Amino acid sequence: MHLQGNVTINAPRKQVWDYLTDPNKVSECAPGVESVEIVEPGKSFRGIAAIGFGSVKARFVGDVEFVELVAPDRAKLKAHGTAPGSATDVLSEMLLSDAPGGATMLNWTADITIVGQLASLAARLMGTVSQKLTGAFFDCVRKKIEAGQPAAAAPAAAAPTGSAPTGAAPNAAAPAAGDGGVAAGTPTGTSA
After folding, report:
1. What span, in angstroms and rounded, lies between the C-alpha atoms of 39 and 24?
2. Lowest CB count within 10 Å: 26, 71, 113, 164, which one?
3. Distance separating alpha carbons of residues 138 and 60, to the nearest angstrom
4. Residues whose CB is less than 8 angstroms from the CB of residue 159 and which lie 6 or more positions away in sequence, other chains included
5. Whole-prediction pTM value?
6. CATH superfamily of 2-178
7. pLDDT digits (tens, 9 = 90+) for 161-175
8. What are the residues whose beta carbons fall under 8 Å from the beta carbon of 111, sequence distance 6 or more?
């Protein structure tokens, strides 16, 4: 499944970059993350995450590698994770650009595939659950980064744009954002 979206974060691009390329900070917002271990600073890390799709639960152990870092503009990563009877592969990219008022626009894409038992048992739930997980993730990231700003420097949050994912295949799932009714400041995404 291919997903994409954007979110405006009321902070300078370097601050957003520093947060999003720090696995320990990002893991604070990633739903289900149990642990993160830096394997090679600035290059790769390993994580454990428990994800549930309805009554179907899985605990993934995954390796993540930054395959491209162009500070503070662009990052690309790939990941591979396994759970008993299932596996996942991820290719994700983020592009940062300046937005009005000293804010940063984060545009992101993710291609995520889940195969095996989890995909066959929970295929119908993956889109909805992925939307909620990604919405919660980007909302948390935005809030944590903006909380690091001096109070006078953080203007009101802008609502991100996009639409919900569609076309989940039985062997594919990925985080998306939003849950149909999007509140101001809640990121959204699209899939193709």
Report:
1. 12
2. 71
3. 21
4. 8, 182, 184, 185, 186
5. 0.78
6. START domain (3.30.530.20)
7. 443 333 333 333 333
8. 1, 2, 3, 90, 91, 92, 174
